[in-house]
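During the reporting period the student researcher (J.K.) took over the structure-prediction task from the postdoctoral fellow and processed the backlog of single-chain submissions. One of the processed entries is reproduced below for the supervisory committee.
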Amino acid sequence: SAGPGGRLQKTRQQTRDVARMLLALRPFARAHLILMEDDWLLCEGAMRAIHYLLAKAAIYQPDFAALRFSYGLNGLLLPAADLSPLAHFLLDPAAEADNQLPDAPVDHLTYRWLRGKYSGGRQYFGKRRIMAFRHTLFWHIGDASAVGNSKTRHRPKCYGLTKEWLFDQES
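J.K. obtained the following C-alpha cells:
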C-alpha cells in the first residue's frame, strides 16, 4: 500500500532485511564490510581512495566506529566485529529506551547508533567515532526508493563534496 502505513511497513521490513543481511555476512567479513546500495556505481579510483582512508584512519583513529564515503546506507565501511551488535540493534531499535524514532529509515537508525545517539551505542562504542571522507566515492544513479523517498532527493556524482549532506556530527 502506498499510504503512510504501507511506507512504515516497508521501512520496518527494510531495516529487518539489513539486520539479517549483516548477520548472514558476518562469518565472511574478516576485517571490514562495506555497505552498498544497488543504485550506486563505484567511482573510478575509489578502491585506491578506500585503501588511503584505511591507512589514514590507522594513524588518527585506528578503532573507528565506521568510515563513511557516501551517504545513506551506501559507502559505509564497518569493522567486522561491529556487524552483529549493529544487526541486533536494527532487529529491535525500539529496545533503546532513548530512541524516540524506532521506525526511522535504516540508514538513519544505523548512523544514530554508530555515533552513539542511543545509550546502547554510546556504551558499545565509547570514544570510537565515525570518520568521514570529504568526497563521495560513489555515483548515485537511481531514483526509485523502497521506502518512498522523493525522486528529487540529492544525487551526488563521483568525488562530490560530502559536506552538503553529512549530518553535523559527522562533518
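The committee noted the following: The two ends are 36 Å apart (CA to CA).
J.K. will present the remaining backlog at the next meeting.
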